[in-house]
């Protein structure tokens, strides 16, 4: 129970959340913590079996059904739905293979974030940081719940909607019959249920890594923003607690600026580390996210082509992924804007020349907004999300007019 409790909102510190994600990813044979124990061979076998089943069901059987089965039956809608599911499900596998290939870089990134967390935020912003990390944990739980809930609901279709189009029979059983020469509905059910949970599981787990890392960087930026705004008042408080006399004389001005200088050095160092880890994160996942956007655009276009009345069960899985990625990118950009405003609002006009120069340098650096991107082409944001929806609708209308 103590172990399960660490997955709840009672534990919102970065090391615990990284551990949460690491435990979830170990099930699919991904090790993101360099110093952790080796992954048991059972999980490697489990991941291998799941991947083989996935490609058999969603690609070998899909190609056979789309190229052969649909022509025999004339059921174009079934082919569209099968193709849509295959396109959307490939997103998780793409990210999984990408992490397998760059596992050493991911481990280095996680180590950098844990090391960054050892640099404690300023005591005056500790409560704010704790509140922000609690919000990050809520995002993590929500994303995992919606993604896995979608898998559960999808797998209930044969029970609650037996009269609807049955992909298990038309798609998987057809693939078993065509490729292996057997027709077994229970085997098809087990295969497709296992693959659905596998795809949603890896999507939610890898998405969880992005949520935790970007959320922590966002939280540190907002904490630094609060620290900048309180800088001058904290300097006066420090002077009144450690020195005697009027805080407006020349001696006081020197002590106040010495305090400001020290605090600015700490803030500059923390901000520089944050920039480095975000650039490292963006460099690792930018290509995987670009492929994800291409697949989602194609998959959503096919969903619309098949008609929402028949493909609506697939949409939450697709929309949650692209929506969360763009949401994380937007929140990071918003935090950068807050930090930039806080620098200008730090009462720098009261500082001496050296500290003013430091603030000016910080202001110039902060104007280079940190962001996540899809292949370095599109910046993840709400604007990008709307642009993708427009592209999907344009592709759908073009395909629809062609079919008609």
Automatic annotation (TrEMBL):
What UniProt keywords apply to this chain's record, in alphabetical order? Cell membrane, Membrane, Olfaction, Receptor, Sensory transduction, Transducer, Transmembrane, Transmembrane helix
Q: What is this protein called?
A: Odorant receptor
> Is the keyword Metal-binding assigned to this protein?
no
Where is the protein found, in the record's own terms? Cell membrane
**How is the protein disposed in the membrane?**
Multi-pass membrane protein
So what family is this one in? Belongs to the insect chemoreceptor superfamily. Heteromeric odorant receptor channel (TC 1.A.69) family.
Q: Name one GO biological process term.
A: signal transduction
Cellular component GO terms, alphabetical: plasma membrane
Give one GO molecular function term: olfactory receptor activity
Q: What is the lineage of its organism?
A: Eukaryota, Metazoa, Ecdysozoa, Arthropoda, Hexapoda
Cell membrane as a keyword of this entry, yes or no, is yes
Q: Name one Pfam family in it.
A: 7tm_6
InterPro entries, sorted: 7tm6_olfct_rcpt
Which chain regions cross the lipid bilayer?
34-56, 76-98, 140-160, 185-212
